[in-house]
Amino acid sequence: MLRVEGLSLQTGGHGLVHDVSFTVDSGERVGLIGESGSGKSLTASAVLGLLPYGVTATGTAELGGRDLLRAPERELAGLRGREMAMVFQEPMTALNPSMRIGNQVAEVMRVHRTQPDRRSAKRAALDLLDQVRLPDPERIARAYPHQLSGGQRQRVVLAIALANNPSLLICDEPTTALDVTVQAQILDLILAGVDGKALLFITHDLAVVARVCQRVLVMLDGRIVEEGPVREVFLNPRHDYTRKLLTASDLEARR
Ligand SMILES: Nc1ncnc2c1ncn2[C@@H]1O[C@H](COP(=O)(O)OP(=O)(O)OP(=O)(O)O)[C@@H](O)[C@H]1O
């Protein structure tokens, strides 16, 4: 379980995120919404131990009881890719441009020693590429990232994220750069892949939250201003800002 309590982030005496608390249980899918600059990505970075230089954290962030804010980088690096994995908006930044896809998927299992040897890691990589519905996994495994479409690259990133069966998956706008039909396919794959794990899903798209998440957190100016079950919050928003977000989205029209 992910537990964040009283998390504040600051840079140069200036507060960016203020006293944020939430939990994501195993098997729970939680959305984090709010306008650009409200602190969503920084909150996720704090959890992953990937805060930008100069940004410091106070409070608590724990995964399965392990302290994520004070752990040494060596320990965090061991957790990232194994216990917690992430999918960001732009798959190209997550992939190594000069390494074949199959080797990249196999490497994440070899680094964390979740496969006994090179050959079984290679076989597991092909299975994963198949699981994220990439056609002809053997051909894809031999390809380099630039030889794939954006949607295919994001499938590869998802395969890498799921490779070590992490207990927490963090997605930050994972489908924003993709066209609508591909978006729907990737969301279905995330839903299938995250079964039983904790999911923190950052997006500005309320329709995506309605489709993917059970619970939603609404962030404004570095604070969580509203939270609850998606249906409750979307049908009966209590905070003005949530109401505004709902009016600005076309979700109303789809209800
Ligand atoms: N490296 C940094 N140094 C200083 N301030 C930063 C840094 N990164 C982000 N910020 C500031 O922190 C605030 C929150 O940024 P964050 O990226 O978390 O927003 P966000 O809600 O994820 O926005 P978006 O939806 O556009 O990704 C913003 O005001 C941003 O300018």
UniProtKB/TrEMBL annotation:
<dbReference type="GO" id="GO:0005524">
    <property type="term" value="F:ATP binding"/>
</dbReference>
<dbReference type="Pfam" id="PF00005">
    <property type="entry name" value="ABC_tran"/>
</dbReference>
<feature type="domain" description="ABC transporter">
    <location>
        <begin position="2"/>
        <end position="246"/>
    </location>
</feature>
<protein>
    <submittedName>
        <fullName>ABC transporter ATP-binding protein</fullName>
    </submittedName>
</protein>
<dbReference type="InterPro" id="IPR050388">
    <property type="entry name" value="ABC_Ni/Peptide_Import"/>
</dbReference>
<keyword id="KW-0472">Membrane</keyword>
<dbReference type="InterPro" id="IPR003439">
    <property type="entry name" value="ABC_transporter-like_ATP-bd"/>
</dbReference>
<keyword id="KW-0813">Transport</keyword>
<comment type="similarity">
    <text>Belongs to the ABC transporter superfamily.</text>
</comment>
<dbReference type="GO" id="GO:0016887">
    <property type="term" value="F:ATP hydrolysis activity"/>
</dbReference>
<keyword id="KW-1003">Cell membrane</keyword>
<dbReference type="GO" id="GO:0005886">
    <property type="term" value="C:plasma membrane"/>
</dbReference>
<dbReference type="InterPro" id="IPR017871">
    <property type="entry name" value="ABC_transporter-like_CS"/>
</dbReference>
<keyword id="KW-0067">ATP-binding</keyword>
<keyword id="KW-0547">Nucleotide-binding</keyword>
<dbReference type="InterPro" id="IPR003593">
    <property type="entry name" value="AAA+_ATPase"/>
</dbReference>
<dbReference type="InterPro" id="IPR027417">
    <property type="entry name" value="P-loop_NTPase"/>
</dbReference>
